[in-house]
Structures are given as C-alpha cells and as structure tokens.
Amino acid sequence: MNTALTIAGFDPSGGAGLQQDLKVFHAFGVYGLSAAAALTAQNSSGVTAVKAVDGNFLRKQLEVLLSDIVPDATKVGMLLTAANVRVVARIFRKYRLKNIVLDPVIVSSSGRMLAEKGVPELIRGEIFPYCAVITPNIHEASVLSGVAVTTDADMAKAAIILKGFGPRQVIITGGHRSGSAVDMVYDGTFSYLKGKRAAGEYHGTGCAFSSAVTALLGKGLDVQDAALNAKRFMGRSFRKSFSTGKGLRLFSI
Questions:
Q1: Residues 48 and 119: beta-carbon distance below 8 Å
Q2: How far apart (Å, rounded) are the C-alpha atoms in residues 211 and 244?
Q3: What is the tens place of the pLDDT at every residue in 152-194?
Q4: Which of 11, 73, 214, 219 is the most exposed place for a label (fewest CB within 10 A)?
C-alpha cells in the first residue's frame, strides 16, 4: 500500500488540518502518516486559539517516524513558527523526501493569522525549493508573492513570482474569487482547472484539495493528472458536504 505523510495542525472539528488530510488519504486508498506541528481550538465557525508544537518535539516525531517508514508523498500544512519551518526544511534535506506538496496555511477562513511574523517569507525561502507543487489560495498567493491577486492577470503574475522561488509547479486555487471556481496551474506554461462553484461556505477546502493531490502523487500520478483528479474529487466532495454545526459546511469523505 502507498503511504503519505501530513505535517500540519490539529483541528478538533476534524474538518481541516491533519485529520482532514488523513481522511482524504484513506479515500484514495493511501495509508496516512501524520506529525502535528500545531494545535488549534476551533470549530466550524472559526479558529479561537493556536499553539505551536515545540520545534524539537516536531523534529522528534518526524525522525522517529522516518527512521521506520519513508512516505511516497508528503503534504505540509500549517507550521505556525519559524522554528517549525526550519525543522521541516532540515528533515527534507536529511531524508530526501519526494512528492512534497505545500498548502501554505497563513490565515484562516475566519481571518485569524495562522503564521507568526516572518514565517511566510521563511516558508518561501526554506520550503518552496523542495516542493513538487504548492497550492496557495488567492489570499496566500498575495502574501507570498507581494501581488494583490484579484484578476486573472494578477494570478498569472503571482504564479510566475512564486515559481521563481523553487517549486516545480504552482497551483493557485480560485475558490475565493467571485465567478467560476478556476484554478491556475503554472509549470512554465499556464493551464487551468475548471469547476462549477458550489453554493455555500466550506471548511477545509484547501486541505482537502492539497491532500488529494498528495495522495495521487504518492500513487504515481504526475502533478497535472493528480491536480485534475483532485479537482474532480473536490466536486464530488462538495456534493456530499453537510452542515452539523453553527458555521461552515463540512466534507463527508
């Protein structure tokens, strides 16, 4: 069985973070491994508090795990602190992990910052060069590129800038823009993933998409095919979503 690792935050609602990632890995028949980089107090309405896992303990989690099992693909989500970014970069160098997908979690849907000061720039310099693909939404792409992304031209400019920092491919997800939900893919040339916008607001869309890409890379697909199949998976997930709390809809994966 193929394996995939998620290095991410813990979400008590199960709608995002490493819990969501593990569910998606399972949906694709991939065995999920996980290391917690941060803890959150959150529900379907938003994030109330965040607490970083100590960098030395994150390193210990990863070294003990990777001394036994080396994953076929790895997803990185919320790291929160500079110390954790540096730990993950050192782990990538030491273990030569492959098929790395970065979902650069910086701010929650409810507007809470999920990265300490200086962390976005450090992620860009330390993590980007190891990535097969990064999957920022337009807000994350804006922060990381310095381009205020509102138009198609802005997305293209941001994608070119972001690829210049080292990832082999960039996918800027367009779900937060008005109109159709079109994702821009850039690997030196542009292509697009088109989808019908689902009504309502959803928790964990970025986590679900990036972890689907990770699972599919772990199964041997290339980035383009993994992204296309992940987009289709998201379409099915929106149709199966449900509302059980007072806030955003959750995915039934």
A1: no
A2: 23
A3: 999 999 999 999 999 999 999 986 565 667 899 999 999 999 8
A4: 219
Q: Is the pLDDT score of 19 beyond 70?
A: yes
Instruction: Report yes or no on whether pTM surpasses 0.70.
Output: yes
Half-sphere exposure of 224 (CA within 13 A, CB side): 7
| Nearest C-alpha neighbor of 77 from the set 111, 54, 106 | 106
Residues ≥6 apart with Cβ < 8 Å to 46: 108, 109, 110, 111, 112, 247
Domains of the chain with CATH codes: 3-239 (3.40.1190.20)
- Is 43:27 a contact under the CB 8 Å cutoff? no
